[in-house]
Amino acid sequence: MPVGTQGTVKAVDQEYLRSDIKAQIILSNTYHLYLRPGTEILEKAGGLHKFINWEKPILTDSGGFQIFSLAELRKLKHDGVEFRSHLDGSKHFFTPEKVIGIERSIGSDIMMVLDECTPYPCEYAYARKSKELTSRWAVLNKESFDNSVPLYGHKQFLFGIIQGSVYKDLRESSAKDLVSLDFDGYAIGGLAVGEPAEMMYDLINFTTDFMPENKPRYLMGVGRPENILEAIERGVDMFDCVMPTRNARNAYLFTSEGILSMRNAKHKDDFSVIDPNCSCYTCKNFSRAYLRHLYIAKEILALELGSIHNLHFYLDLVKEARKQIIGGTFKDWKDSILSKITNYQKIN
After folding, report:
1. Which of 74, 131, 132, 319 is the most exposed place for a label (fewest CB within 10 A)?
2. Geometric angle at alpha carbon 103, from 99 and 105, rounded to 5°
3. From the candidates 61, 115, 177, 275, which is the catalytic residue?
4. pLDDT at position 257, please?
5. Which of 104, 90, 91 is nearest to 30 (CA)?
6. Is 240 annotated as catalytic?
7. Domain ranges of the chain
8. Active site annotation includes 209
């Protein structure tokens, strides 16, 4: 899922998302949209889909991770979390029920429950307390969701978020708590927050054993191309990450030949395409030399063209993964991709 935190995938017009990148769903954020433009504006507009002219599905994160990131500006309580806006310092209080109400106002197709994302490293006692809090909030989220009516007439779905830090017994307990509530899908939260990649893979492999096979499995906030392929092999279906667009805005482009730093002087007179194996709008129309010129000149077009390419690269990767799964050849294909993984990590 391309990340459109504030109702926009940064630097990319919706038409490119539809026609070139062919995104089927985007992610937005409850915390940010609640603060700006606010639920009153969204309801007057008829929901986020109409507000941003995006007719395809939207998933909204609950804002739990963003509130977690506020650190000193938040205070956890048994019935919710108090926080101060990063915009103006104003005080707010999110309960599980309030978050469901905000996501109804947004009109998201997939709504995430309010949870607490623990840091890494995290002591066991704190992780256990946090897991129990997330499980209690999940009950309140589910009850509020079941008892409320969608504002805009279309069906909405609610996903639970499995927490437990790096402790397997807590992950198992959290998964069982949520599965008993019969959510529409389940997410693995609290990973990719600083733990080693191998530890993350081990925890994904462990946790998916407790997640239903007939419902979507979503790994939140991940990640690099190799992270995604490893997680797919371990049973994950859905991903989101800011990396494709954030890297593009900083002149780093993912290609089948490695990561290109478009500010590198060697691209100054290189009139070849960004990636000969890519069919995106950027690769079909512009050279490395031109992209480098745009980045060096700090032209806004550089951010758009780079973001289009990186998102196309990511979407092509997972589309191909799906084809390989259906064809029964995913493992061999994934291994062949990972054998070239040093190229993804090498900056040219």
Report:
1. 319
2. 115
3. 61
4. 87
5. 104
6. yes
7. 14-241, 246-345
8. no
